[in-house]
């Protein structure tokens, strides 16, 4: 493969990469971290001069917390954030009482995290960027993609730098993580189909407020739903001294003023606070809530992730989380193709799996937003569905279930966690054993492990499992793990059973005993 034959404006060979990532938001950085730990050469370019400011998507859902834990940033995100507070409803200067917007879910053995975690998006990006740097990667800030061409061997990207110079970059694959106005998506001519969720604009801002004397504590998410001109919410941002202000307008023709003075006056007009109480406006933006999805998530050697592929209303905290999981789904597949000889057709499964998931999640965000606007207190509650733990790829091309009577976990489902023990009775969680960029064959009970040349339901060649497969036996002869409290049996069903778990934590093959099949063509 000729990847080093493109020169920049100075005549020197352009840097060579396996993957060029355009955009350094949460999706682009998640992908870059995942590829770096796999030894895949990724080049990351970002139009901005630094990481994007703003709390923006501030909710990390339980499934994304599992992803970040696997990528080595779980503890940092836990320490930097905090749980969501209860809501406090106001009318003018009166506090009417607290209530829960989030449906509180009890802890369970099959999940290490049972609640969303609040973390400003700028801090999420900082943590991911630090992890990328730790792994030897970096981001080229002030570098914008202006065009691209692709051929059978790779992609040539045209870049413009902040100093006015220009150049090109060559990579085997390119990933667009460049946001809702994606330059890459437009260059490919991929359409975006969707709707305006709310015709009226919304202002979002990060502010520092001296409001304790007026009842604005940091133990509640304060809301004035009947404020003049539209509702407003002030949410204390965990791990900071800031609040996120979110102000909706009733008038679709309103023209909000997002200047610092405008934000101060907006808060003063709709709450008991004075403009002078807003000590600082760190960042502010205006948007009109939309729900839209790209018609395709792939065109040849180019992939769309995050907002480049789908745009959400902020209601329900789904946008950032869906973006992170796009990257997590794509990362291991690129790694298998580029480093482990997997069939390049494996990459077709990215769109096949993620597009229907994104469509379903868009529906959740839109429904919650519209319920809020309609004053439907029940409909706007964040239930367990926003945690994204039940999202499955059962209908995708990488799900083969060879059992006559499937148990609680089917091929395509997220593999559940379970408290276990090492043979010496030292407690350990199953997820601690699964962590890492490899496949794991989970052998439960006295099931007979497949031979080294096992076809895993016809998927082995497509997945490229050779050389990156670890076998873990739970119970049975010579076990690696014990199930003293039966949590594995409850989560996965009783043995004997075999589960092939993908690097992104989803089961791709389940069986009672190994069988031989014709290699999969990834067509179903």
How are the elements arranged and paired?
Layout: E1 16-22, H1 26-37, E2 42-46, E3 59-60, H2 62-70, H3 74-80, E4 82-83, E5 87-91, E6 94-99, E7 117-118, H4 121-134, E8 139-141, E9 143-150, E10 155-161, E11 166-176, H5 183-188, E12 192-196, E13 202-209, E14 221-224, E15 232-236, E16 243-248, H6 260-270, E17 278-287, E18 290-294, E19 298-299, E20 302-304, E21 310-311, H7 319-339, H8 348-373, E22 400-401, E23 419-421, E24 427-429, H9 430-434, E25 439-444, H10 460-463, E26 469-474, H11 487-492, E27 497-501, E28 507-511
Parallel strand pairs: 1-2, 1-11, 2-8, 5-14, 11-20, 22-28, 25-26
Antiparallel strand pairs: 3-7, 4-7, 5-6, 9-10, 10-11, 12-18, 13-16, 13-17, 14-15, 15-16, 18-21, 19-20, 23-24, 25-27, 27-28
């Amino acid at each position: 493969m000729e990847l080093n034959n493109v020169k920049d404006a100075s005549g020197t060979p352009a840097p060579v990469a396996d993957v060029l990532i355009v955009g350094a938001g949460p999706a682009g950085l998640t992908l870059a971290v995942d590829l770096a730990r796999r030894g895949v050469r990724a080049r990351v370019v970002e139009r901005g001069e630094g990481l994007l400011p703003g709390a923006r998507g501030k909710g990390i859902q339980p499934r994304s917390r599992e992803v970040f834990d696997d990528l080595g940033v779980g503890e940092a995100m836990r320490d930097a954030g905090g749980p969501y507070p209860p809501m406090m409803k106001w009318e003018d200067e009166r506090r009417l009482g607290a209530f829960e917007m989030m449906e509180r879910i009890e802890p369970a053995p099959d999940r290490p995290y049972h609640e969303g975690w609040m973390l400003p998006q700028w801090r999420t990006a900082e943590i991911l960027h630090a992890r990328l740097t730790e792994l030897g990667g970096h981001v080229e800030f002030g570098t914008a993609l202006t065009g691209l061409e692709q051929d059978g061997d790779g992609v040539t990207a045209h870049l413009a730098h902040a100093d006015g110079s220009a150049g090109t970059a060559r990579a085997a694959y390119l990933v667009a993580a460049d946001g809702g106005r994606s330059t890459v998506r437009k260059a490919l001519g991929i359409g975006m189909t969707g709707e305006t969720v709310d015709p009226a604009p919304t202002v979002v801002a990060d502010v520092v407020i001296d409001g304790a004397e007026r009842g604005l504590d940091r133990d509640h998410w304060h809301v004035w739903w009947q404020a003049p001109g539209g509702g407003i919410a002030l949410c204390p941002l965990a791990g900071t001294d800031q609040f996120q202000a979110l102000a909706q307008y009733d008038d679709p023709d309103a023209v909000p003023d997002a200047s610092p003075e405008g934000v101060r006056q907006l808060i003063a007009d709709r709450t008991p606070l004075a403009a002078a109480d807003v000590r600082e406006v760190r960042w502010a933006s205006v948007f009109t809530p939309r729900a839209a999805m790209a018609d395709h998530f792939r065109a040849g050697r180019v992939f769309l992730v995050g907002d480049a592929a789908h745009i959400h209303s902020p209601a329900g905290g789904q946008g950032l989380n869906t973006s992170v999981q796009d990257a997590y789904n794509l990362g291991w597949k690129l790694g298998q193709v580029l480093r482990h000889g997997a069939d390049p057709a494996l990459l077709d499964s990215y769109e096949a799996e993620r597009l229907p998931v994104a469509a379903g999640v868009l529906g959740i965000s839109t429904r919650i937003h519209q319920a809020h606007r309609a004053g439907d207190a029940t409909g706007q509650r964040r239930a367990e569905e926003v945690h994204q733990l039940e999202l499955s790829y059962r209908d995708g091309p990488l799900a083969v279930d060879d059992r006559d009577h499937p148990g609680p976990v089917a091929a395509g489902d997220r593999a559940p966690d379970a408290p276990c023990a090492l043979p010496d009775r030292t407690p350990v969680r199953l997820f601690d054993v699964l962590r890492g960029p490899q496949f794991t064959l989970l052998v439960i009970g006295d099931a007979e492990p497949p031979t080294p040349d096992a076809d895993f339901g016809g998927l082995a060649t497509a997945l490229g499992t050779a050389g990156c497969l670890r076998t873990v036996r739970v119970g049975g002869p010579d076990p690696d793990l014990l199930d003293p409290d039966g949590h594995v049996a409850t989560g996965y069903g009783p043995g004997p059973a075999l589960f092939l778990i993908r690097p992104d934590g989803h089961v791709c093959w389940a069986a009672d005993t190994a069988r031989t099949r014709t290699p999969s063509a990834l067509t179903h």
